[in-house]
Each structure stands twice: as C-alpha cells, then as structure tokens.
Amino acid sequence: MSTIAELTPTPLWKHFAKLCEIPRPSKHEDKVVAYIVDFAKSRGLDVKLDQIGNIIIKKPATPGMEDRKTLAMQSHVDMVPQKNADTQHDFLTDSIKPYMDGEWVTAEGTTLGADNGIGVAAILALMESTDIPHPPLEALLTIDEEAGMTGAKHLQPGHFEAELLLNLDTEDEGELYVGCAGGVDVNISLPYVAEPVKTGHQAFKLSVRGLRGGHSGLDIDKGRGNANKIANRIIDTAQQQIPALRIASLDGGSLRNAIPRESFSVVTVPEGNAELFRDIVQQSSATIKAEFDNEPKLDIALETAEIPAVVMDLATQQKLIHCIRCCPNGVERMSTALEGIADTSNNLARVVTETGESGNYQVRIQCLVRSLSDSARDEHGLNVAAAFQLAGAEASLDNAYPGWTPNMQSPLLALMKDVYKEMEGKEPEVKVIHAGLECGLLAKPYPNWDMVSFGPTIRRAHSPEERVHIQSVANFWDYFVKVVSAIPQK
Length: 490
Known about the structure:
- The protein has helices at 10-21, 30-42, 114-128, 150-153, 227-241, 274-291, 314-326, 374-389, 411-424, 439-442, 470-485; strands at 46-49, 55-59, 71-76, 98-101, 104-107, 137-142, 164-167, 175-180, 182-192, 194-196, 201-209, 246-252, 263-270, 299-305, 310-312, 330-334, 342-355, 361-371, 394-401, 429-433, 450-453, 458-459, 467-469.
- The protein is an alpha+beta fold.
- The strands form 5 sheets. Strands 9, 11, 12, 13, 14, 16, 17, 18 and 19 form a 9-stranded antiparallel sheet that branches. A 6-stranded mixed sheet has the order 1-2-6-3-7-21.
- The radius of gyration is 24 Å and the shape is elongated.
C-alpha cells in the first residue's frame, strides 16, 4: 500500500508527510520550527528566527530571474489539535496518522493538519527545488496562527524586501482570496458557589457527540449544531419539569475557532425523578435530531454517573442556563456588499466548569466573534459579553485582529488571473473569506505588500474529519509553480 509521501507532486507530499510526523499544535511549535531551521541550513539557505519565533527563509533567484520582483510566501506551521472522544492521541508527543480515503487524504481520529501544512510543504518544496525558475524568494512561516495569530501580530518591519506576497492558507482550489474577516475573543468567567449534593439525588452524565463541527469561520454559515447550545437546551427543558435538577460539571467544546462537536455534562436529580429525566432527554433528543437533519451522526446519550462532590448553586445555574440560551451563535448578519458571504458571526466555542487559582468555582466561556468590519466585530463582541455580564459574569474582549480589505486593482491578482485562465481556460473565482487570514495583520508592518491567498481543497478543517483533496493539491502545486515563474521584472 502506497503512502502519502509517494503521491504526486512528490516534492510537496514528502514534506507534508514529514510534517505529520512532528507534533505541532498551536503554542507548541518548537519541534517543527527546529526541523524547518535544520532543513534550511542543510540546503545552504539563509534562515533566521525573528523576535517572536517566526521562521524567515531567503533564497536567491535562479539564473536569468535576478531582475524579477522579490516574492514572499507565507503559511503558518501550527495546527488545530482536535480528536474524537474515543481516540487515544497526545498532540504534544504523537504523530498524526494520515491515510488515503479514495480521492482524499485524512487522518485517523484527529485533525489532519492540511490547514496549513500543505502550504508549508509547498514552500519547503519550492525552497528545495533546483529545476523551477523563480525570482528572489522570501518565506515567512508564522507560529501560533490558530490560537491567536501571535506570530503575525508581532511581525516587525525590516525583515523583507518583497513587494508581493502569496498566502497559502485558503481551502478551495481554483479560488483566489483578496480579503478576510477580522476577529476578537470574548472570554467570560461566571463564579458560582459549590454546594453539597442533596441526599436522595442520583447523578447522570449527559453526552452530546457526533456533530460535524468544523471551522468557525468557513463553516459558521452552514447551520451546524453547537454541542454547547444543545446540551444547555436539554438541561433547561429538564429543569423546567424537575426544579431540583442541579449541574455538577460542564465540559463542552475545545477550541475557540472550532464549532463545538461534543459536550459532556454531569447533573443530579432526585431519585424519584430519574425516569422522568430519562424520558425528557429521550424526547428532547428526538426533537433536536429532527431539527438538525444535517447532523446525521448526532448522538445524545444519558448514563448513570458517580455522585459528584458538589453541584452549582441554583441561582447561578439558572442565570447560566438563560445566558447560554440568549448568547448569539452563528451568523449575525450577511454581507450586503458581497453576496453569499457572512459579515458578522459568533461561535459559542467553550463552556467548562473549573476550580479557579484561588480555589473558587467558576464557569469559563469562550467565544470567537468574526466580522468583515472592525467596528461590527467589536460591537458584536460587546453584545456577546453583555449577555453574560447581566448575570454578574466578568467578560473581556481580547486578541482582536483586523480584517483584510480587498484590493480588486491588485497587479498580483491580475497576474494570477491571467495565469489561471491560461492554464484552465476560464477565470478563477475571486472571493473574500469569513475566516481569519494573517494578511490583515501582515499589512501593518508591510503596507506595501500586494497580497493574494489561495490553496488546495480542504474540507472540515478544525475537526477530526479534516481532509484534503489529492488532485486539488496537484492542481494547486502546478498553479503555484506557474505563478512563481511568471513574477514580472522590478
């Protein structure tokens, strides 16, 4: 059986296969950074790390291309660490296990890391090549894109000579992106009083699993279920009929930029209400599954659990349930200027009970608001925060990053459209994306950069069902090489 390293184009796939072997979740990129630095040094390339840890590699032009404009290429080295609940995998130590599934490459029970590993692999393949004509090249491989765009935020001027930049981080082959949404994290903390479990109560674990999840930018407009919302809805329905129901723990979602696929809750009810509680969960499950007919694998399960040590005080519990009920989730509004593009959205990403540093109990909620407008981004972030502040929660807007304003008159865009039309006999689609790209941040230290983003076809990014289309990678590589070879004179 062949491996992905043997797929075509081999120069790209062999590097992607190697990246899969190296653990590289966001904020833990030291191993992959060391590998890429060694790769560059062993090939005589100029390589350095900037003050935040981004990798910068430079390569002279091939003979006869010295008078061309310098081209920068950019991708991020980190990946989103998501796995199925029944998958045993440590993202800090274990390799991703990719395999071919028909026309696609995917991974065993985890995210694949094609976002943005394919882009990184393409850059490494070009930097290693000896037979591809190219202008002077500069590569920027950023860290921690998925968890806060830390590398792009801290990039300083003075590192690059390029006028043009190719961002290799979008997910539909044949589409060129010239703008993106900005975003802001909404971090919320709601304290509660821990109370002993009442005598005569029985404990249950409520599990919501099997949702499609996905990228909170690319997939937020697809009407997919949110595990936090679904679990809260069931608990609310049950408490209306069983007032003594109490929440012991909540653990829903995992990452701010991934639509939550799973939620696990432990609650207690009086023993005399146990059968009623089972019936309520069963009825709610049937209703919710009928509503979400686009979630064929949705599984809502109830099982008995050990009696917990404590439960949440009733007053805070009711406030929390109401807050999650009214917290905006999904698309807030569609763009009026760009047909079919979400303008503003929120992802209710994480809901978890935990013990704070001083031993106090709290519910921590994380959301990610995105918008094509920085003002609308901040306004909607304040709206989300207010839903919880009314209940006495502390809320802050953190890690804001700007959108990328489209430039339809871009010379680089015109060049790339011409190359695509010559190759395919048709015009590429030119789009703006609701997901966040680093281009908006890169424009701050390098306002002269003319930027376009493109990539192969990737589906279900930020979820364990992530997959990349094999033929689209070949098409992406061929197009990438043709564009690089067509960069004009200075």
